[in-house]
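Researcher: I'd like a structural prediction for the single chain below. Treat it as a standalone chain; there are no partners to consider.
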Amino acid sequence: MPSEWLRGSTRPLRRPGFSAVELDDNVALYDEAGQLLILLNRSAATVWELCDGTTTVDEMLQVLTDAHLGPPDEIADDVRQTIRKLVELGLVAGGADQPTDRPPD
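Model: Treating it as a single chain, here is the predicted structure.
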């Protein structure tokens, strides 16, 4: 996947057909057959939830930076790595790469 694919204006979208189940401080993602695909920590689960096709990567970074202590650059790297992993697993589509200042639909 080219590095320029994941821009701040990209709007990742969860693919249908997966179930999220909360387990203590984690979220397990299952396919339609009930097979466990990945276990996400709370931060990664927040990224998963924000992959709604309307939230940009930049907006996700802001949400996670506001919610966690730590260097913003490290948080940004973690968010981008999480999105890439979700895409690699087929759980998230790249979504549209649109300007964030577009008029509302």
